Amino acid sequence: MSEKQLSLPRRLWIYQAERFPLGKTSLLVAVFSAAGVNASALFAGRAMPGWPAYALAFAVTLAFFFHLRVFDEVKDAEDDARFRPERPIPRGLVSLRLIVMLGLASAVAVLIACGIVEPTVLPFLLLVWAWMVLMGLEFFVPRWLKAHPLIYMATHMAIMPLIDLFVTAVEWRPHGAPPAGLALFLALSLANGCILEVGRKLWAPENEREGVDSYSALYGSRRAVTAWMCCIVLALALLAGVGFSTGAPLATFAVGVLAAIFVLRAGLAYRAAPTPEAQARVDAAAGIWVFACYIAAGFVPLAERLLP
């Protein structure tokens, strides 16, 4: 039986496994969203909110990441058909129309959820979607952005602090103004977005593909991974600032240093020999850093507060 003859649920299951792995994504989103809610309360010295705030932050953030995938499917449809025919949509596993419809359905669902649970965050929801639309349209200058990859990355990774602005607003918006320390947290989200983006596009020379951009191909593997490691150091410095704002500087920084040592070792190994194995370790290390970073920012200070 060919893939096209499988039932729709089975085909969607294959699609998510390849393009939006729910297990891994849900775990990262759970940590990311809960850390944002916790950090907002910690910045302001407030008690943690009830479970509806966490549930809303998680559900909307998961939807945001799915919407980013949908926009990518639309934006890259032509290139995928030409250079990546093995992907689910170009090979006919599911249609682009179906994925877009699922994206719209999830958007309606989270819009209703925000209206019920916390209507004050609706402007931030719309702000994130508006930026996604601009990203999908390549800010109306696609050729110029493609010719300036660093600006391209900065404009697209700006979505990360905007998502975190929504996540934290779930906690602080009912109380009025944003708390002190929020700007550092949003800057950390931008740095982490760049770490994920660059980390997944540092490839071994034999894995480079025609028509598929990578930072290793654009700048050379040594320069690209050195810039990636600099982003780790910058994120560590921002994490230290967040630790001071949440009242747990030493514990937060200690977790960050341990994670940074592990991740930087992967970068140094790739710099010495950009093999496929080193490429995979850098990609994994980027995710580990972001995971550890949000644990340090949003959970370590809470644990320190709760411990006697």
Would you summarize the structure shown here?
This protein has 308 residues and is mainly alpha-helical. Helix content is 77%, strand content 0%.
Low-pLDDT residue intervals, each spanning 5 or more residues = none
CATH architectural name of the largest domain: Orthogonal Bundle
Instruction: Give the end-to-end Cα distance, rounded to a whole number of Å.
Output: 61 Å
Q: Characterize the largest beta sheet: strand count, sense, and whether it forms a barrel.
A: none
Broad CATH class of the largest domain: Mainly Alpha
- Percent helix, as a range, is over 70%
- Please identify the structural class as seen in this structure: mainly alpha
How would you characterize the overall build of this protein?
- 77% of the residues lie in helices and 0% in strands.
- By secondary structure, the chain is an all-alpha fold.
- It folds into 2 domains: 8-175, Tetracycline Repressor, domain 2 (Orthogonal Bundle); 180-308, Four Helix Bundle (Hemerythrin (Met), subunit A).
- The longest helix is centred in the last third of the chain and has 26 residues, at 221-246.
- The radius of gyration is 20 Å and the shape is globular.
- It starts with 7 loop residues before the first helix and ends with a helix.
- The mean pLDDT is 95.
